[in-house]
Amino acid sequence: MLRIVGRIQRRSALLWVLVLGASMIGTAAGVASLYDSPDKIHSYAQAVTSGNALLAINGKVEGIDSLGGVIQDEFGFMAAFLLPLLGIALVARATRREEESGRLELLLGGRIARHEPTLAALLVATATITVTVVLFAVGLAASGVPVAGAVLYALSLGALAFVFAGLAALLAQLTQHARGVYLWSLLVLAASYVLRGVGDATQTWVSWLSPLGWAEKAAPFGDQRWWTLAIPVAIGLALGVAALGLAARRDLGSALVHSGAGPQHAAAPMRSPIGFAAWIHRPAILGWLAGGVLLAGMMGALSQQLLGAMAGNPALAQALGVAGGRPLDGFVAATQLYLAVIAAGYLVQAIGTLRAEEADGRLETRLSGTLSRTGWLASHTLVVLGGLIMIVLGSSLVLALATAVSVGNMAELGPTLSSGLAYLPAELVLAGLALALYGLRPRWFAIAWAGYAVVTFIAFLGPGLKFRQWVLDISPTTHVGNPPLGAVQPSALTLMAVTALILGAIGFAAFSRRGVPQG
After folding, report:
1. DSSP of 49-107, one letter per residue?
2. CB of 407 closer than 8 Å to CB of 399
């Protein structure tokens, strides 16, 4: 079973290790070259510790006045997002998705016990996390971080991924579809981020309720509390053991939490291609929308505190990359970039669902009637784009309202909404890339996730680490113009929209001609 799961996961696991390792090593090397003296590190520490608002966003970094502390602060948001996704993605794919497709039933028809696929998935995920941890520790140590701090920081991030791997394994027994595993896992991640932010901002015990808080409390560059690693390891093991117990007892193909028998006849919307596509993509839309709304609401509520901190410490604006112009515009621009990355992640995942529909055999059934290939792909594309609009507008509206209430100025509503919409062409470039890869060869779809990781890395860390302009230009978000702080560049937006259309057209044309199913 280990060999089977390893064969299923080898490409995904390798991609995760390479992307995460490159992100950490790139961040560490960039920070080490940029903050190459104690004075520069001290200036950075003074800037980012002004007020509680930044604690809620990036977390409380003990030992911030050190090279390792600066690296932890810079990599903090990406780590809080990507490490849990590592554990969730690897386990969900090897458990509930395999069960949905019917392949697991064939395996269990032999001598394999019911719990062994889940156990193998957890072991493969743990091995991938271990390799990532080793790469993290080596990269940090090579950048000049003390070995003990590098090892503890890498282990704390690995333990965070381990918790969410155990959570995904348990949810695979509770929910009936892989998309349900992703939905509830992402909701738990969003709640963990909020709990950690509230606990750090209020300096209370609330952060101890969050897995993100456990990773933070290890204080790898401060007091170095090695014992805190026992908490996520114990919780992850408990979740994994519970998942194994349920997998050994429940009926194959069932779930412990389900909605019961469905209606006798399908509702009218479900009988149309677009209605059925909306039903398939609804969990992903709701999950990513919840994440965007929670982030926007928290950032907006803290806007007044952050503006006050920037007013008292001009170096803070420079550290956040929002120097120049109105501080409020800079704050909105930085937040909209975070929301744009969330929306782009939704697009890649949603289009990746099409590959699952094909691999699991459901696409052939849909195309056996009067529905054409183009009609099927077009209906899903329209629903995915509709979900994108919902996520962008919903998150931007919450950000605008929360910011307006915090600063007492409703005039920011229009600029905040328009700045969110300005990122649509950049997000659509990633959607076009994902569609082109799916249409040409579904096996290549991992390239879309790799592209998303590169865009995320450059968007979050590129300006702060003073990347060369040609490196920044690789990310479509760079060409938007940083609204409302900077001017929107219509020509760049038009070019990106045309690029997205061309990539999408390539995907449609290739899909209409290739074999179905195709690996």
Report:
1. TSSSHHHHHH---TT-SSHHHHHHHHHHHHHHHHHHHHHHHHHHHHTHHHHHHTHHHHH
2. no
Q: Where do we find the tokens 């719990």?
A: 115
* Region for 378 from its dihedrals, namely left if φ exceeds 0, alpha if ψ lies in -120 to 50, beta otherwise: alpha
Token pair 């991640």: residue: 189
Count CB atoms within 10 A of the CB of residue 498. 12
Alpha-carbon Rg for the chain in angstroms: 23
Whether 55 contacts 40, CB under 8 Å: no
**Helix, strand or coil, per DSSP, at residue 278:** helix
Q: What are the residue ranges of helices labelled H in 175-218?
A: 178-202, 211-217
Kindly give, in sequence order, each residue whose CB lies less than 8 Å from that of residue 186, ignoring residues fewer than 6 positions away.
88, 287, 288, 290, 291
- The pTM score is 0.81
Cα(258)–Cα(433) distance, integer angstroms: 35
* Three-state DSSP class for residue 376: helix
Q: How large is the greatest C-alpha to C-alpha distance in the chain, in angstroms?
A: 71
Residues 247 and 392: their CA atoms lie apart, in Å, by: 38
Whether the ω angle into residue 484 lies within 30 degrees of 0, i.e. cis, is: yes
Which tens digit of pLDDT belongs to each residue from 213-252?
999 999 999 999 999 999 999 999 999 999 999 988 887 7
Helix (H, G, I), strand (E, B) or coil at 111: coil
Q: How many angstroms separate the CA atoms of 478 and 518, rounded?
A: 35
SS3 content of the chain, % helix, strand, coil (to 5): 80, 0, 20
CB 196 within 8 A of CB 212: yes
Q: What is the residue whose two structure tokens read 């408990």? A: 238
**Size (the chain), residues:** 519
Q: Is the Cβ–Cβ distance between 69 and 61 less than 8 Å?
A: yes
Distance CA 198, CA 185 (A): 20
State pLDDT tens for residues 302-338.
777 777 766 655 666 666 666 556 777 878 888 899 8
How far is CA 187 from each of CA 182, 194, 287, 519, rounded to the nearest angstrom? 8, 11, 6, 31
Other beta carbons within 10 Å of 135 = 18
Contact 412, 483 (CB under 8 A): no
Q: What is the DSSP letter of 485?
A: T
- In one-letter notation, the amino acid at residue 406 is S
* Those residues with Cβ within 8 angstroms of residue 401's Cβ, 6 or more apart along the chain or in another chain: 300, 413
**Separation between Cα atoms, residue 282 and residue 288, nearest integer Å:** 10
Residues 6+ apart with CB under 8 A from 100: 177, 178, 360
Looking at 109-177, list the stretches that DSSP marks H as alpha helix, in order from N- to C-terminal side. 116-142, 147-174
